[in-house]
Amino acid sequence: MAFGWIDEQAAARRQAGLVRTLRPRPADSPLLDLASNDYLGLARHPEVVEGAAAAARTWGGGATGSRLVTGTTELHGELERELADFCGFEAALVFSSGYAANLAAVTALAPHGSLIVSDAGNHASLIDGCRLARGTTQVVAHADPDAVRKALGTHDGPAVAVSDTVFSVDGDAAPLAGLAGACREHGAGLVVDDAHGLGVLGAGGRGAPHAAGLAGADDVVVTVTLSKSLGSQGGAVLGPARVVEHLVNAARTFIFDTGLAPASAGAALAALRLLGREPERAARAREVATGLHARLTAAGLEAVRPDAAVVSVRAPSPEEAVQWAADCRAAGLFVGCFRPPSVPDGISRLRLTARADLSEEQVERAVRVIGETRP
C-alpha cells in the first residue's frame, strides 16, 4: 500500500508520546500568552497593523513574483536599507521567511570544497542549510569556540562556522566573540542566526552581533527573522554588500521563491521604526525574562537562566510535558512544549517567552499556574 509506512511511524509517535497536533487559536484568545515569539508585544500594535494594512492597500495582497522579476517593491528596498542601518551592517536582503534566509546564507556561502563547522544546538533551518550545501559539515560541541578552532584547523580551503546567537530551546547565548576569534585565526567566515537576539539584545535591540562588537565586520554574516521581535513575517540576511550581491545571484531560496508579501514588509518596517523610537522595549523583555527565571527557581522548578527572552523549564518526560502544558492551558496560560526531536539533548521542556508588554501581575500569575500544575 502506498505510504503504508506512515501508519507505522504514527504508531511509534503515539507510543513515545510525541504526537503533534494543530490547535487553531481565535482572534481574541482569553489565554495569557507565554508561548509566542512576540517578544516586544508588537504583532498587534496599532502602528504595526496599520503598516501592514497600508502596504496591502498600496501594493496588493502579494508580491506577484520572485524578487528578481516582479517581487521587489520600493517597500522591500526601504525595509532592507533601514534594517541594515539599524543593525549596523552594510547591506541586507529580505526573504519570505527566516528559514529561507538561513538556507540561503549557508548554501550560498559553503560551496564545494569548503568546510562548515556547525554547533550541535543549531536550529533546524541551519541544519538543513548544512545538509543542502555543497561543502562538508562537521558538527561540534555546543557553544565551544575551542571545538570550532580545532575543526577549522583540519581544513585548508574555504570555511565557515555556523551558529545561532541565542539558542531557541534553552535561550542560552553563543560566545560570539570567541567564535569570531576562532574563525579569524583560520581566515574563516562566521554566519550567525540572530532570530532570538534581534529586538532583545544589543543597544536598543540591535541584536547579539551588535552587542558583541561584530556588526559591520567584513567576515560576519547575520540572518534574522521578522516574525519574532518585529511581529511580522519574513527573514533577512545582513552583511557586506558583496555577500548580499552574491546571494542575489546564487541563493536558490531567493532566486526561485516569491517575494515577501508587501503587508509583511510594511508591518516589519513599522515595527522597526517603533523600536527605534522606543528602545526601552528591548530592556523590558530582558527584565521580564530575568524575573520569570527568578520566580520559577524560587518556586523550586528547574529553569534555565535566560540570556535573552526565552526561559525553559525542564519536564520529567515527553508525556508529562504535554500534560503539563495542557493543564496550564486549562488554567488560562498558554506555554510552549518542546519535546524530541525538537530538542537536541532529548530532554522535554516547557518553553516560556518573555514579552516586553507583560505586567508584573501577569508574570506572577504565570509562575503560580506553572507551579500549581507541575507533574
Coarse shape: globular
Please write the string of helix (H) and strand (E) elements: HEHHEHEHEHEHEHEEHHHHEHEEH
Query: End-to-end distance, in Å?
Result: 41 Å
The helix count comes to: 14
**What is the strand content?**
5-15%
- The rounded Rg comes to 21 Å
Structural class: alpha/beta
What does the average pLDDT come to?
A: 96
- How many runs of DSSP E, i.e. beta strands? 11
How is the main sheet built?
A: 7 strands, mixed
- Trace the largest sheet across and list its strands: 2-8-7-6-5-3-4
Helicity level, as a percent range?
40-55%
Residue stretches low in confidence (pLDDT < 50, at least 5 long) are none
What's this entry about, in short?
The protein has helices spanning about 5-15, 45-60, 75-85, 100-110, 125-130, 145-150, 175-185, 210, 240-250, 250-255, 260-275, 280-300, 320-330, 360-370, and strands at about 30-35, 90-95, 115-120, 135-140, 160-165, 190-195, 220-225, 235-240, 310-315, 335-340, 350-355. By secondary structure, the protein is of the alpha/beta class.
Detailed description of the structure:
The structure is a single chain. This protein has 14 helices and 11 strands. It is of the alpha/beta class and 375 residues long. Helices cover 42% and strands 15% of the residues. The longest helix is centred in the C-terminal third of the chain and has 19 residues, at 280-298. The strands form 2 sheets. Strands 2-8-7-6-5-3-4 form a 7-stranded mixed sheet, with helices on both faces. The chain is globular. It has helices at residues 4-16, 46-59, 74-87, 98-108, 124-132, 145-152, 176-185, 208-211, 241-250, 252-255, 262-277, 280-298, 318-330, 360-372, and strands at 32-34, 91-95, 115-119, 136-140, 159-164, 189-193, 220-225, 235-239, 310-314, 333-338, 349-353.
